Amino acid sequence: MARITLQNLAHSYLSHPRGEADFALKQMDHVWDDGGAYALLGSSGCGKTTLLNIISGLLRPSQGRVLFGDRDVTGEETAERNIAQVFQFPVVYDTMTVRDNLAFPLKNRRMDAAYVAGRVQHVARMIGMEDWLDRKAKGLTADAKQKISLGRGMVREDVNAILFDEPLTVIDPHMKWELRTQLKSLHREFGHTMIYVTHDQTEALTFADKVVVMYDGRVVQMGTPEELFEKPAHTFVGYFIGSPGMNLFDARIEGARAHLAGGAVELGRSYGSVAGRTQIGIRPEYAVLTRGEGIPVTIRRVEDVGRHRLVRAEAAGQALSIVVPEGMPVSADLTHVSFAQDRISVYADDWRVEGSAA
Ligand SMILES: Nc1ncnc2c1ncn2[C@@H]1O[C@H](COP(=O)(O)OP(=O)(O)OP(=O)(O)O)[C@@H](O)[C@H]1O
Fold first, then answer.
1. Fewer CB in 10 Å around end: N or C, the chain?
2. Which is nearest to 280 in space by CA: 296, 258, 302, 298?
3. CATH of the domain at 175
């Protein structure tokens, strides 16, 4: 296992990039802990695969270095990096049994037969395929084959890292939850450094200790699921994480007050004068319908989404969502919306600004 350092890293697919816009991966510096479970999360085209390919050695970065522990691996081929990879689609040998598929990476390294047998048994138990070990892989469902791929990715104890590239794409929706949970416990048990690429926030948040949110070739925030929810560092994180995402309002910030089209909102903290495009962000969970406190709101519709209801409304000339707890009636006298002061984020040109005690 290894700590992974990305030093002054950037990548352009063009041979003569002219400016930042030509870089699929903008310059970044990060250290990812040994034994950490990381998810690379972001929408299509934001650079997740590019970054993963640089870490795995499939792609040589146009700038900067990749270190595993203290070793500079930037110029090393994938095979030299001692990593395991699980891809979007299963890679299994159809003519081999499940047992031989799982044992393959260990036999390849001429591990002791007793060790191989024990390890295969252990991994088979973890992926729920103990009873399938003597079956040929041919004819198994895509789910089962992908489980074998996951198991094979995890069978070696001595890898520097395990890289997963959208590994649950082919898995049936009801199996996804089970496999995600299994992966999490495999991480807890084996302690490998794991990097998991996905565009699905549920996958990222359930799997990772640290979620690395990417947007337009940049890491915009690296944090625990809680940090991403409570303090989104960038408006994209606010919008992308959460269901629905954060409400954002254009606002003029003056000291500890935000002026919106519908009225003023007290922020509880002071921001001086903030330059650029300024916005405030509030999660639907922290907006409350009131009978006069806050800014005027027009309720458009109420959606029942199981444990709570979701009110779609309009305030300050913009659409907003409000989570209404179970049991609270949404009556016509709820004319205003107020925001929990300590949950409001202030953004300047999309980046979160920290206030000071007002
Ligand atoms: N081989 C390539 N040559 C040129 N441009 C590329 C190449 N691969 C990716 N890109 C571009 O680099 C950017 C980042 O792509 P990348 O595949 O890393 O994103 P991603 O987040 O993994 O997206 P997805 O989830 O769709 O796979 C995109 O603009 C893409 O068009």
1. C
2. 258
3. 3.40.50.300
Task: Tell me which residues of the chain have a pLDDT lower than 50.
Answer: none
What is the predicted ipTM?
0.97
Structural domain of 76:
4-235
The token pair that represents 170 in the structure block? 């082919």
Nearest residue by C-alpha to atom 7 in ligand 1: 13
**CA-217 nearest atom, ligand 1:** 14
- The per-residue pLDDT for 324 is 95
If asked whether residues 127 and 28 sit together in one domain, one would say: yes
Q: Which atom of ligand 1 is nearest to the CA of 49?
A: 22
Name the residue at shortest CA distance from atom 26 of ligand 1: 44
- Mutational test site, ligand 1, from 41, 44, 220, max ligand atoms within 8 Å of CB: 44
- Asked, for residue 240, whether it belongs to a domain, the answer is no
Same-domain check for residues 176 and 90: yes
Tokens of 160: 């520097």
Q: How far is the CA of 213 from the centre of ligand 1 (A)?
A: 16
pLDDT for 127 equals 86
Q: Is residue 99 part of a domain?
A: yes
Residues 313 and 215 grouped into a single domain: no
Using CA atoms, how far apart are residues 56 and 78, in angstroms rounded to an integer? 6
CA of 81 to the centre of ligand 1 (A): 23
- pLDDT of 273: 80
171 and 221 together in one domain = yes
- pTM over cut 0.80: yes
Q: So what's the pLDDT on residue 252? A: 95
Q: Can you tell me the distance from the alpha carbon of 73 to that of 223, in angstroms, rounded to the nearest whole number?
A: 26
